[in-house]
Structures are given as structure tokens and as C-alpha cells.
User: Fold this.
Amino acid sequence: MEITDRLAQWMGKTESFKKLSTLPLSLILNFVLIVPFSIMIYLSFTKWEPLAGYDWWRAPIAGIPRFIESFADARLAWALIRTAIFVAVVLPLEFLLGLGMALLFLGDFRGKKAFTSIILYPMMMPWVVVGLGFYLMFQYFGPVNLLILRPVFGEGAMIDWFTDPVLAFSVIMLADIWQWTPLMFLIIYAGLAAVPRRLVEAAEVLGASPSRILTTVRLPLIKPLVVIALIIRGLEAFKVFDIVYIMTGGGPGGNLTEVISLYVYKLAIVYNNTSYACAVSLIIMVAIALITRLAIRPLEVKVE
Amino acid sequence: MRTKGTAGRIARYLLLIAVCAWTLAPVAWMISLSFKGPTEWYAPNIVPAQPIVDNYINLFIPTNPIGGSHFFTSITEPITKPLINSLIVAGLGTLFAVLVGFLAAYGVSRYRAGGTFTIFFTLLTRMLPGATFVAPLMVFYSSIRFIDTYVGLVLLYTAVTLTYAIWLMKGFIDEIPPEWEEAALLEGASPWTVLRKVTIPLTKGGLAASALFIFILNWSEFLFALVISVTQVTTLPVQISKYVSAVGRMYGTQASIGIIATIPSVALGYLIQKHLVTGFTFGRVR
Assistant:
């Protein structure tokens, strides 16, 4: 057989292979994501709900009243604000704590491996169980009240954490910080440990203080890594659902710790307000898609 | 940072111990509660005065007394079924995600299949809050009678973990020099044979790590399981949420179900410790 023939045959095989390799992926994505996505767009322009008495595909197009409704929805606005606060508090704290821990772990010392192993298990835990753990810790007869507040400040200092919206939301944020600081720590630590020793030594020879070496040598070098970590963690934090559902269910006061995912869930499942839930979902999706489009550039940089 | 002298070393160890204490506290308290009887649930002691395993037994036999006293709750179903469901759904979801994801990752890595759209699209599905899919998904799934079925949940799990599967495995595939596969191709082997005889044996470790990582994600998944399950496909996390809302202040039982759900994912997590960062950043950081 001529070599060109064999090459042509080989090309033919790889061409079909190329198409086949992503076929199952497209099938699944189309079935589980694109179809619901289309339904969502359609329903968000209707006024359909499961109790309407007719099938959803018969629902007449009603235009944009659902979107107008959403602009007047104070509960939606509050859920968005609360989620934004959540991300704005949790993200910098996880970064700073992670950085602090990374600095603590730099260099060699006894038991480093053991300490690292202990510290990183929270991110392996099911989110629901993290929520449960903090729910149990902050009960009125939980260890935070009984072991810390009562012995130190006396009987009157015991706090009913989950009846106060600000305190309850703080506990939720604390749970997230507890679970995800280790990831930040690992990423920052890996970056810092990879900073060439000679750069740090050169700065030391020039008489720079440790804090100055950190801000002018180490941190600038790991900036791309930190940006990626913050983008990914920020988008994940925006999705927060499990720990809120478990700890407060959106309460106290019905919705005073409600975040956006929980509100959309309740619209769809609890209130059966399907077409409105679709409209709100669509708005959020478009917003996130725009953000992702902007955020994807730094994500394309691969950090080794 | 170089710490100088004994004082520095002591300060470092004190800080390390503080960090560890903070990290261990919630789980230590759950373990403690899970071995305590009802009389100690509201007490501050960490080591149970009279350790019992009734909390765990009660999960499997809900009518069984705890520490001698009977509790009547709305939960009558033992944990056995949710436990098996979690294993089935997480296991099958992982299997499909790895199969489909490996093929796609290989195509993207070697033949640039799918183009940038696939890449953007898979990333986007990770960025979108799952809750935004709940409403249309319920409509779609009720129309095709997928609510409360294993098929429905497994398909969902496959779809949402595919991003991780593709990116993780693409990283492992990229590490193999393409020349090795090209040599086999030029010898006349078909791409499928190359995949089976060259690529898979070389990426075995990476594939196993990816599979375990995805299993942990599926094991922990809560939102979709909560939405899709009614009575048949209740998973462990959903059962936990029922325990939190339904049994009031039965702290011991709540803690013991939390511990049971934690053990598999943390045990597997330690097996793939060095791949965790790569996993959670979909291969962006390695």
C-alpha cells in the first residue's frame, strides 16, 4: 500500500474519531442542559404554573410581565444583596486567612505533613454536613455557648444564634470560611513555595524586610494564581445553597437569611411559581454568563 | 518566612495548634455528640460520660430507644435505603462522567475536537448556580416522568460533573507525549486501539484520581437530589436535611448521620490528597 493511501485512511479514521469523541458529551449536555434551558426561556415569557390546569407547552406567550415583576420584587433584591454580601465577606477573609496559613507553613519544620493533612479535610466534607456541624456548634446548648461564652462571660452571655438574622448569617459565613480556607491555603502555599529561592535571597541581601519581600517579590509573582483562585471561589460562593438550607432554611423571619439560590429554589418548588422562577433564573444566568465571559480570560492562563 | 530562635518556633507551633483546633472542632463535636445519650446532648462535656452507640443503631432502626428513652419522630424509614441510593447514584454518575469525559477530554486534547465553544460551555455550566436550573428541570422531568427515578438523577449528576471530568482528565492526557500515540497510529492502529492500548494504560492513575474526585462531588451533592427525589431516590444528604428539620433537638442522631456521610468522602479525599487543588480548580491550578 502506498504511504499516501495509508495516510489518507488514517486521516479518515481520526476525522470520524474526532467527531465521535465529543458526541456523548453533546448528547448529555443537550438533553440535561439545553432542553431545560429552552423550556426556561419559553416559560419565562408566559404566566404558567403547575396548577394552571393545562400543559406547559400550551401556555400562551404573555410577553415580559414576569421580568417587570422581578424588578419590583424586594425579596429578590434582598436575596441578591445578601448573596453579594456573602461573597464580599467570605472571599477576602478566605484569601487572607489562606495567605496567613501559607506563610505559617513556609519553610521546614517538624510535623509539617501531619499538620497539612489535618488542615485540609474540611473541603472533602459534604457541604450539608458542614452546615449540620455548624448548626450543632451554634445551638443554644451547643459548645460555643457552653464552652466559650458561658465560662468566660457568664450565664447572660449565652446567645440564641439562629433567631437573630445577622448572627445567623454570620454563622453561615463562618461555615463557608471554615470549609474553603484550606483550598485557598493550598493554592497560595503551592504558589509561594514555587517562588525561586534566589529571588527571595537577593531581596534579603539588599536588606528588604520580610514584609517587604512578601509584598514586592512573593505576592506579585503568584498574582495570576491568586486571580484564578478568587474567580473560581467567588463564583462558587455565589451559588451557596446547602449550608443555608440546612442551618436556617432562609429564616429567621421566613427570609432574613435567604440567598439567591434558596429564593429561586423556593419560587420553583415551594411556591410553584414556575414561570416567574424561570424569568428570575434567566436574569441570573445572563448576568453570570457575562461575568464568566469576562472571567474566562484569566482562566485560560495555566499556572503550573 | 524564616522564624528565628526558640520563641519563633514556639509561636509557630502555637498558631499551628490553634488552626488545627479550629479545623477539628465541628467534627470533633459531632463525633462526641454521636456517642452521647439524650441526657448529655445539652451538656458541655466533650468526652461522653456514658458512651453509647444507640444513635447509630437508631438510624437503622428508627424505633429503637436511645440511651433507654424512646423518641417518636416523623422519620420512620431507616437510613439503609438513602445510603444505598447514594452509593448507586454517585457511583453510576461517576462511571458515566468518567467514560464520557475521558472520550471528550481525549478528543479535545489530541484532535482539538469541539472547539472553544465546548470549553466555554462546560465551564459555564460550572459557573451557573444549579438552582437556576431547578424550575425548568422540574417541568421537563415531570413531562418525561423522570422525577424520583435513578435515571433522572444519574443523568443530572453526569452532566454537572462532566466539566470536572473533562478538565481533570485533559490535564492527565496532556502529560503523555503525543509522539507515542502517533507512532502507533502510523503503524496502522486505529485511534480506538491507540486509546485502549497506549493512552488508558498510561493515564490509569490520573483516571482513578479523577473518578474518586467526582465520586466525592456526587456523594456530597444536595440540591438536585433534594429536588428530584420524592421517596424512591432519597440520597444521604437529603436524609440529613430531613433529620435536621424533623427530629428537633435530637442532636445525637443528627450528629451520627453526619458522621456516616462524612466518612466515605473524607477517606477517599485523603487518597487523592495531592489532586484536590487541581480538582476544585478544574485543572487550572496544578
Q: What stands out?
A: Residues 9 and 15 of chain A are 10 Å apart (CA to CA). The mean pLDDT of chain A is 86. Chain A has one domain: 73-300.
